[in-house]
Amino acid sequence: MSILKHVQSYIDKHEIKTSPSALIAQFEIIIELHREFETYLREHNINQELEIMQRSKRMLEKRRLFIEWYQLKHQNNKMVKEILIDLSEMIFISTRTIQNDLIKGDANNIHKT
User: Which pLDDT tens digit goes with each residue over 45-58?
Assistant: First the structure.
């Protein structure tokens, strides 16, 4: 089965209103963001800190860091609501959870200073 047929099957199953090529384009954007984020983690030596944590805590911390990074990256060219929706669709969590992660991140930054 070709990739376009798989994508069309996914679209039909989840009743998404988009074309296969548009959905693939969205996935490519997400993959590129993931690469940029991984580069950011390496350049700032954050990966070393994450490796020390237990897996569940590491995954939560990495999610929180991604949310902060994405918000900072797009704060000048997107509205907050757009950022929350983008993140919600990319990492499959509610906008409320994203807001809570941002609040936790701000609280952690306050305690570090």
Answer: 898 888 888 988 99
Helix residue ranges, H only, 75-94: 80-91
81 compared with 14, residue with greater pLDDT = 81
Question: Model-level pTM greater than 0.85?
Answer: no
Residue 97 token pair: 């959870």
By the 8 A CB rule, do 66 and 28 touch? Answer: no
Q: 3-class secondary structure for the chain?
A: CCHHHHHHHHHHHHCCCCCHHHHHHHHHHHHHHHHHHHHHHHHCCHHHHHHHCCHHHHHHHHHHHHHHHHHHHHCCCCCHHHHHHHHHHHHCCCHHHHHHHHHHHHHHHHHHC
Burial class (CB in 10 A: 0-12, 13-18, 19+), 83: buried
Q: Is the predicted pLDDT of residue 113 greater than 50, yes or no?
A: no
d(CA 52, CA 90): 26
